[in-house]
Amino acid sequence: MNIPFLDNWRKRYGASRGVAVMEDASHDAEGVAQLLSECELLRRQAGAAGVELDDTAESLSALDQLLPLWRDDSEVLPWLGNDAGLYLGTVIVRTVPGARWQVWPSGRPVVRLASGREIDVVEAGHDWAFSGTPELSQMYAEASEA
Q1: Distance between alpha carbon 76 and the CA centroid of its chain, in Å?
Q2: Residue 61 and residue 135: Cα distance in Å, rounded?
Q3: pLDDT surpassing 70 at residue 21
Q4: Which residue among 21, 29, 97, 102 is least enclosed by CB atoms within 10 Å?
């Protein structure tokens, strides 16, 4: 969508950043994990580029190799960053022993590792979508070592 005054505002102040917010649903951990793993926009973009998102560390590496064409679309960028973070969290929760989703009182989902460390995967996803760093595979490697 091309709205000149909005494009000028974004150039001056930067693109807005989306946020994943939800209520505490610790009583239904499987339902929360299912909801957070959807990442429809990211899955669609990756599929169009020939990348299959199968919830593995290898798929994170494949995402890191994609050309960041989404950076040209300031409306898609924050949503894709949100999905990238939730996908990173999904891969960590499904493959790193003891990792689980935790919802902060503000409603923001984070991943809590067995060590007690919390990773704000949504913020990491936004950083990746906006600038390419940190790489999703690097964030996963750090989480799996903890």
Answers
A1: 13
A2: 8
A3: no
A4: 97
Q: Is the pLDDT of residue 42 over 90?
A: yes
Instruction: Using the Cα atoms of residue 117, residue 122, residue 126 and residue 129 in order, give the sign of their dihedral.
Output: positive
User: In the predicted model, what is the mean pLDDT of residues 34-40?
Assistant: 87
Residue 83 near residue 44 (C-beta atoms within 8 A): no
pLDDT score for 112: 97
The DSSP bridge partners found for residue 103 are 109
In this predicted structure, which of 6-10, 98-102, 137-141 has the lowest mean pLDDT? 6-10
Tokens of residue 120, six digits: 């704000």
Q: Please give the structure tokens belonging to residue 124.
A: 């990491």
Cis before 134? omega within 30: yes
Structure-token pair, residue 6? 């909005």
Token pair of 117, please? 């460390």
Q: Distance (Å, rounded) from C-alpha 129 to C-alpha 42?
A: 11
Q: Count Cβ atoms below 10 Å from residue 127 Cβ, excluding itself.
A: 19
Both tokens assigned to 109: 């989902």
